[in-house]
Structures are given as C-alpha cells and as structure tokens.
Design brief:
about 700 residues, five-stranded antiparallel sheet, five-stranded mixed sheet
Length: about 700
C-alpha cells in the first residue's frame, strides 16, 4: 500500500516536505493510496547502487521470474514491452549496457558512444566522487523509433524510451522463467554513476493468473495516526494535523497506517520552519526641503524564490568562437546551448529557481580554443565558476542555484507625503521631521512579517534658542546658563563672558561678573553650515548687612540710648526697628520704654533675603533707702529698730554704719553711742539718734 502526505497552507496543497515560517499555522493531510499487489518480481535496489569507476568491471542486477508456465518462451519480441533502468551517470561513453535472458541470450542495448552526455543529474565533482545524484528513467523498447542513446546524445540525455543498439529480437526463444540480468560495464577511466532500480515489462497476456489483491484501511484513528512535535490540532479521523513551529528548524512528522491485513506502514515528512524575512528601512536621512527616496530591502530570512544567473562568454581576440565551441547549461535536466558568434564578449541570462541543479558543460573546437573562456555568475553578480583561457572539453562545474528571498509586499506608515506606501522605495515629501516604518510580508505567508523604521530629519536653520535673563543673589549656587535660554536651543555650542572671553556654561555668583553671556552654535546639515547666537543677561544682587547682635543694661533713670550704635560689624543704615516698644529714630528711652529684644531689619535686594540683627535691652530700677529720720532714747530704754525710723518706702536689705557698730539694724542706748547712723542701699539716708541720760 502506498500513501502520501499533503501539506495545506493558506489554501495551498502539495506533496513533499513542507517549508513554513516561524509562527505560521502549517497543516498536513495524509492521503493513503492503496496499491494493488501482484507477485511479479521487483527491481528496486533500495535507493541506489554505486557503479564503480573500475575499467572492465560490470554491475549485474537480477530479476527472477517464476510466474510463467513451465517451459514458456518469448516467441514474439513485441511481447517484450520495455526494459527500463532508473539511473544517473556522468559519461555514457564509458558504458556498455546488456540484457541477458535466463537461457544466456544477450543483447547489447548501448555500446559506449555519446561521449560526455549525462544520464540523469549526476554529481560530476571530483571532490565528491561517490556522491549520488538524481536518477532518471531510461527505457529500451522494440517498438521505439526515435533512435538509440547515441543518436540522441547531447549534454544530458532526456528521460524517455529509446531503441536498443542491437535488435531485441536476439531474446526471442529465451525461457521466460528464470533469472533475467541487467549488466552495465564501465570500459573507460573516470566518471561514475548509480542505478536506483530497473524492471522488465512483458505483455500481460503471457502470464497465467497472477496472485494480486488491493489492501484497504480504515479511516478512523484506530488505523492512522500522526506523531511529531508542536502539534496543535488533529482532525477527527487522525489523518490531518496542524502545527505552529515555535522556532526555526526542521521538525519530523511520522504518519502511520494499518491495513486490513494488520500490516503497518509509516512515512516521515519534515516541516522546516525558517525565520521571517528581516527588513531594513534604510538609513536615516536629512533634507533641506527636497523629496527623499526611501529604500527598504530584505537582508535575511524569508522564503527563497527564483532569480537569474548570467553566463558570460569571452574571446580574447575579439572575433567570436570557432565552431563547434559551445557551453551547455543544464538546469534541472533541461539543457540550453550558448555560442559566441562574434565579438569579444556576450552575456546570457539563465533563469533558475532556488535549489535547482545547474550543470555546466563545455565543448572545445580545438582551433583557436586558447582564445576562449567563460564565467557563470549568480544573481548577486558573484562568479560561481570562472574558466581558464582555453578550457578543455568536459563538465567543469555543477551545483545548486541559490536565490535570495523574493515575493514580498511592502506597507509604509504613516502614508503622509509618500508617493506610494506599498512599494519598497517610495519618494517621501515631508515638511517636518518624520519617522517612517515599513512592514514586509511574504506573499502567501501573512504571518511572515518584519518591520523596521527610519527617520527623515528636516534640516531647519540652526536654533540657538531665545535670549534669557536672570537675577541671582551673590551667595547663590552656580547656575546652568543653557537652561536659562528660551525656545528649543541646539546643545553643544560655546559661551563667551561679558568681556568676550571664553566661558563655561556655568555661572558662579560672587565669582563671575554680571553682564551678558553669549551662546554660539554652529550646525552643518542638509542645508549647509550656519552659526547663530543668543544671550543670557545675568544680574547679581548684593547681600544686605544688618550687623551683629548686641546687648545693653541701663538704669531706668538713665537717658535715651541709640540702638544702631550698639550693633557690631558694619551694618547698613536705613533699616527698620521692631521690638516690645516702638522706637523713635532708633533710640531707646529707659524711663518710658519696655526692656526686651529689639530687631534691626535691612531689606534685601531681590532675590537676596532680608538681613536682621538684635539688641537685647535690660532696664534696672534705682534702690530706695527711704528718707532721713531721728529718734531720742533714754539710756535705760530698750533697743530700737533704726529701719523703722526711716521715712518713705525704703527697700529692705540695706546696711548700717555709724558711731557704733549696728547689729541686726537695732540701736541699743545702753551700749551704743548717740550720733548719726547711715543706711546704705545704693542711695544714702541717715537716722540721727540722741541719747538722754
């Protein structure tokens, strides 16, 4: 039983390995094609058998028939419908191809000849002498009328049916049952090939009844299944799956079916996820009012497509190539021949698809061959092969075509000012600086997208900003002059101080002088070079001086005091006083005003603050010793208080002095002398005492 895996991707379906983009939803649908079995022998050689390049050695493949009646013979050559070989080789001139019947009758179907003609698509590369190419099918039939292999020899022999060199009538009379042999002999050195399979087809009427049957399988999950990574959904009958590759890579998916005989078959399909195309919107640009050509390009990723290679033929003498010099370029088995008819050089375009096998063959005329050379360039203009002058006949190069990604749609945003937002290279006409972003999508793969942006800067005249002005106090911190400019100044300019000397962009109050600081900026752009200036005017305000704090103690009986004269330092005149009592002309009168802290304030020049200093005033009151008094005592009288004899309201706590020492403020007439006794309390008052005996 045979079956195939089909891929569906955005309403497409095809057989074979699946190529998708990272993030795309890719689906596989299995189709089982039952093949009728019969008992005829198979010539399948298991993928390819190497035909060694050993001169005189022969390769023999066998088919054993037992299905005919015993003794049955081939009586009519037309009952031999065809002998087919699936093979590749790089030089049919090496080969002898024979068919040998069970009774030893031998017919030579090809006897060398044909020179360097290819069979199939061989790997004709000395660096890979044993690499297998692509086998094509070649048949021999007694009914063919188109000539032998040699009759059709060219660069590559097309797949098809040909006449045998010797008549296949030589097999008539042979036993049909037995071992039939295909024999391929290599009689020349160099070049080799592979045989993938072969078969003989006889007239079905020659066979008695053959055993044959067609297996069937169920259409449910008990008869079929998929296995592989990242499967996101499965159809109800398990014959279809969808997957979303999370990353670039190749992921295998195996489909298994079971037929009604219990036989199990499986095959594996690979899904290759490629990175999305990576696009560049192009470099940023600047304009002085003229339109700008945008240019987006895909730099990597994406699905490769078709492209054009170039074949260049040269003649150093300049008179063209002599016959039969020619180059044959075979693309996937389709040959094209090129010849330089006249002149020094000619260029021919070779359309190819990515991965196509390209084979170069050169045929030398011999005469004037030394003047000839040729080159094959890829779509990027790089030489993939360059012959020497006077190349020799043969196959100098073969390899796969490599084409860049192709088939993209473009979408620019915003569309404002664009000649066409849906092409890679629109023209942008802008009046102000604009960022344009382009998104590229591969045709047929709407999830394969990439975005990049570029900016077009409209080159306006250089902008130094607008003039600024600032007033600072002399003790303020340093200021940034650039920050004082108005508008949108361009950074990176230079500064000059009021004396036209160079200056940094920092102004230090108390160090740098007041005045105008000039800012100059020069710009080189799409509109050329220009210089412009602006300025910052800086005014520095001085600090006020209220002097330093002071204090004073006065007697309430003292005269007025001028407080300003009491301040320390060098205070500025013209300030104002405040305190417990209002001051007139800055004078404090202790007889009428209240003691306390009096504040002297000098108003600062903006933005400097006000400055203050204080004078602390203490007022003391004079002591009161009362008024003079007198007392007359008898010597026999008791002691008496002198303080009690004072008039007025004397303060207590004074001291007494007199003719006799006074203890405790008492006068004892018995022991103390008469006379004047004085009470001292800062002020002096006396009491006169008379004693009568």
């Amino acid at each position: 039983m045979k079956y195939s895996l089909e891929q569906s991707q955005h309403s497409k379906a095809q057989t074979g390995d699946l190529l998708g983009c990272v993030g795309e939803v890719l689906c596989l649908d299995a189709v089982v094609n039952a093949v009728t079995f019969n008992e005829l022998p198979s010539g399948d050689l298991g993928g390819g058998v190497f035909l060694a390049d050993e001169v005189g050695s022969c390769f023999n493949a066998e088919l054993t028939y037992t299905q005919f009646d015993p003794g049955q013979t081939l009586n009519n050559v037309n009952d031999l419908l065809s002998i087919c070989i699936n093979m590749e080789h790089s030089f049919i001139g090496d080969l002898v191809v024979n068919i040998i019947s069970p009774t030893g009758q031998t017919v030579t179907m090809h006897q060398q000849g044909g020179g360097a003609t290819f069979l199939g698509v061989p790997v004709d590369n000395d660096a890979q002498p044993n690499a297998q190419g692509t086998c094509w099918q070649y048949c021999f039939s007694p009914s063919a009328t188109n000539g032998t292999w040699v009759d059709n020899a060219a660069t590559t022999l097309p797949s098809g049916t040909y006449e045998s060199l010797n008549n296949l009538n030589g097999l008539v009379g042979s036993q049909l049952n037995g071992i039939w042999q295909l024999q391929i002999c290599d009689l020349w050195a160099s070049d080799n090939g592979f045989v993938c399979d072969w078969n003989i087809e006889f007239n079905p009427a020659l066979f008695p009844d053959l055993v044959e049957f067609t297996p069937v399988y169920g259409t449910d999950c008990d008869s079929s299944s998929f296995a592989g990574p990242n499967i996101t959904s499965t159809t109800p009958d398990c014959q279809g799956i969808c997957t979303t590759p999370p990353a670039a890579g190749t992921f295998p998916y195996t489909y298994t079916v079971t037929d009604n005989f219990g036989c199990t078959y499986d095959t594996t399909l690979s899904i290759t996820a490629i990175p999305p195309a990576v696009i560049t919107a192009g470099p940023d640009d600047a304009t002085c009012g003229t339109p700008v050509q945008l240019g987006a390009s895909v730099v990597s990723g994406g699905f490769p497509g078709s492209c054009t290679y170039q074949l260049i033929l040269n003649d150093s003498f300049g008179d063209g190539w002599s016959v039969p010099s020619q180059v044959t370029v075979t693309v996937n088995g389709v040959p094209s021949t090129f010849f330089l008819a006249a002149g020094t050089t000619a260029t021919f375009n070779i359309p190819v698809t990515n991965g196509a096998t390209i084979i170069l063959n050169y045929n030398a005329a011999g005469l004037w061959n030394g003047e000839q050379s040729f080159m094959l360039r890829n779509s990027a203009g790089t030489a993939v092969y360059s012959s020497p002058a006077g190349p020799i006949t043969g196959n100098p190069w073969s390899g796969p075509a490599v084409c860049p990604p192709s088939g993209f749609t473009y979408s620019w945003s915003p569309t404002t000012g664009l000649s066409n937002p849906n092409i890679a290279n629109p023209v942008a006409t802008v009046g102000s600086t604009t960022e344009y972003c382009v998104t590229v999508t591969q045709v047929g793969h709407p999830l394969c997208t990439s975005t990049d942006c570029m900016t077009i800067t409209v080159d306006d005249p250089v902008d130094p900003g607008t003039d600024g002005m600032i007033t600072v106090c002399e003790d303020a911190a340093a200021i940034d002059l650039f920050a004082q400019l108005g508008g949108t100044p361009v950074a990176g300019g230079t500064w000059e101080d009021p004396s036209a000397g160079p200056h940094s962009g920092s102004f230090v109050p108390g160090v740098d002088p007041s005045g105008s600081y000039i800012y100059s900026v020069t710009q080189v752009g799409a509109c050329g070079s220009s210089t412009a200036t602006s300025e910052v005017t800086v005014t520095v305000s001085p600090l006020s001086n209220a002097g330093t704090d002071a204090s004073i103690t006065v007697c309430s009986s003292s005269g007025p005091e001028v407080l300003f004269a009491l301040l320390g330092g060098t205070p500025d005149a013209g300030g104002t006083w405040s305190g417990p009592s209002a001051l007139a002309s800055g004078s404090f009168d202790p007889s009428t005003m209240t003691a306390g802290v009096y504040v002297y304030t000098v108003t600062g020049t903006a933005p400097c603050p006000d400055e203050t200093a204080t004078v602390t005033v203490t007022v003391n009151t004079p002591p009161d010793a009362g008024t003079d008094g007198s007392i007359t005592l008898c010597s026999t009288d008791a002691a008496s208080s002198l303080f009690a004899e004072l008039g007025g309201t004397p303060d207590a706590g004074g001291t007494w002095s007199g003719p006799s020492a006074v203890a405790g403020g008492m006068i004892d007439p018995a022991t103390m002398l008469a006379g004047a006794y004085i009470c001292r309390l800062q002020a002096l008052h006396l009491v006169r005492m008379k004693r009568q005996l």
